Amino acid sequence: MQPVSSGSAQPPQYSACLQAAAEFGASVAQRVAGKAGEALLRAAATVDPDERRALIDASRLLAQYRECLRNAYPGCLHREFAALDRQEALRSKPLSFEALELMGEEQVEETVEVVRGQQAVLSAVEAELATLNALVSAAKGRATVSAAANPLRPEAWVQALRSASLQCEVPAWALVRWLPRLSEALGPELASVYRQLADVLRRQGVSDAAYALRTAPPARAPSPSALAPLLNLRDLRRLLVGEGERSGHSQWAPTDFGSPGAAAEPAAGETIGLTLPWALEALQDTRQLDEVMHRLHERRSTGDAASEVTTPAQALGQEVVRLMVDTMAGDRRLLPQVRQVLRELEPALLRLASNDPRFFRDPHHPTRQFLTEMTERSLAWPAADLPGFAAFLEPLQQVVAALATMSMETAEPFEYALHSLEAAWSQQEERSRRERANAARALIKAERRNLLARRIAERLRQRPDVRGAPAVIRHFLAGPWAQVMAAAQMADPSGSDDPGGYGAVADDLLWTTQRQVAAESRPSLARIVPGMVAALRGGLASIEYPEEKSREFLRELAALHRLAMQAADEAAAAPPAAHPAAPMDDEREHEFWLEPTEALESSLMEAVPAADREAVSQHAPLAGDHGAEPGDARAPVAIEHLQAGAWADLFIDGAWSRWRLAWASPQLLLFMFADGAGKYRSMTRSVLETLIAIGALRLVSGQTILAGALDAVAEAALLNSMESVR
């Protein structure tokens, strides 16, 4: 087994812990598979006849593939640990709406079982995991505990168990019955492993890192101020954390403000409002609060009809809305037309803020969903004259004009408006959605075939006759012919050991190209070669292998056969055949292969053209592009920051254009981007990494426009209050 490593130097105690964890994999898999098989049989006794047969068959398959799981699990753990340690794996949410429509029912069921399994395992190892987190954090040189710094957390073990099961190539109906029982059995086993790993670290002198305790700051007495009776710091916080609603009140009564006594602080570990950034925690000085409220009072006294309020909570809520809209309307990533729509929407938002304080803390509030949807969709167009933008903007303007005239007693108008807009936009996008779904299915099939081909190639490389074969034969068998064998296995429902006879063709190919053996059996060689060549042509045609490359290989094969047909002494003295210029490293990963039909259907970007590599630095980015970090248009994009739905500017076909990451394949080897006009492009992971490396991908937004605006509100409030006490 290869050592577990993230590619950078690690403390020796930490490296030893990773290695020990991976080495536990085989025995863990062996015991888990046995217990899961027993659980399947127990479950079969309590279900209807059809399900009973399925469970019994799944148990039999699990017993049959128990050794496969045992052998595959350590390597899968190795990869999961390394990916989490590097934090380079592109990990999306277990299930999102957009991914769901591209998935089949079996994929959905499998995903649910994986997530459920992670929760079951986590529940079984909570105490042991807390101890291990502290030790692993210390082994990595951290003074305090970081759970995210531990790559041995349960998700790695569950994901590796799923990957190992996939390598067994069992039917999907069996896999969805395996996974919950495997996860259930994994919990106690993993708890034992965690205890052993903790002992490994302690024997090497590692002591637990400390858990950082977050404590609430002490409450301060209100300072004398004309506005103090109306609102104090606790009430400002209550606006954000929703304490009034938790106590049964939908809205604060004016008599609640400034009441004596300490307000209830959140319990230890409780989240302080999903829209409350850290900056607001600094607003603990009541003198600062008085200055904020004084500014609110001055703004309210200017006579703005939309800002009429009856309570300090409403005044503060409206100030938050104004700052939020100011920030969003000033965001250069949004086109001027969209920023103007936001300005026109402000009066309706101010009225809503007075009547529905849930807006400030509920991420699923209809109004926040409306704002997120309109701004995130608008990012598809970096210019107003691009196709599709007018069709997006016109219904939005009509809906906002209607909202501006409503009283906004509740969020219902925004909810209805969002449904109306989604219906209008969905009609425009339906054709593109269907095409992307078809492309995704083709890419999933291609990914499965490539993964199977890699396993077939690895088995071939272990054969002595392959290691001794000419380089051109080794690379052919581990490359295109492994794809042929994989495609035949996927298309064969019978479960044949060698569907299509392509494995036998590989045997003949190896035998006929070994000079010493073949020269002694010239009649057999002459008899075998014509049929073998025909089978090679047919196999390559089955994966749509390019005809030119097929002819090139067959020419090289014919040259090898001519040498093999010569006398043994002549073959020994003959110069070596002119093999194609192929790398001699047989262990290298072959390029991801898509059949031409699959590549066409998915609009595959097969490579980054040399011209784009040279021209990317010479072309200005799109207007309003801020790159991965605010103020730095050329900041590099880390692949782990790319999540489904993220917008990015790509330099492809000699120009910058705006694309959204619409889909990633289950094994994260293929990715699909879509633009605002409905076009889509897919690419392999290696192409995506190349685009990032040459600066041809710039992340437009790492978070939603709305989330950024709410963070900016908190920062602005902090700055204003800090300045007021200078």
Helix-strand blueprint:
Layout: H1 12-23, H2 25-44, H3 49-64, H4 66-86, H5 97-101, H6 105-139, H7 154-167, H8 172-203, H9 233-241, H10 243-246, H11 286-300, H12 312-329, H13 336-355, H14 366-378, H15 389-403, H16 412-461, H17 464-467, H18 471-491, H19 502-512, H20 515-519, H21 522-542, H22 547-565, H23 568-573, H24 596-601, E1 604-605, H25 610-615, E2 647-652, E3 655-664, E4 670-674, E5 680-684, H26 685-693, E6 697-699, H27 705-724
Helix pairs in contact: 1-4, 1-8, 2-3, 2-4, 2-8, 3-8, 4-7, 6-7, 6-8, 7-8, 11-12, 11-27, 12-13, 12-27, 13-15, 14-16, 15-16, 16-18, 18-19, 19-21, 21-22
Mean residue pLDDT: 74
Question: What would you call the shape?
Answer: globular
Quickly count the helices: 27
Give the C-alpha Rg: 32 Å
Cα(first) to Cα(last) distance is 63 Å
Which assembly state applies to the chains in this document?
Answer: single chain
Q: How big a fraction of the residues is strand?
A: under 5%
Q: What class would the helix/strand composition place it in?
A: mainly alpha
The beta-strand count equals 6
Major sheet: arrangement of strands: 1-5-4-3-2-6
- Tally of domains: 4
The biggest beta sheet, please? 6 strands, mixed
Instruction: Tell me roughly what share of residues is in helical segments.
Output: 55-70%
Uncertain runs: 1-8, 88-101, 213-237, 243-307, 574-589, 625-636, 718-726
Region (Disordered): 245-265
Pfam families: DUF1631
Organism: Ramlibacter lithotrophicus
Protein name: DUF1631 domain-containing protein
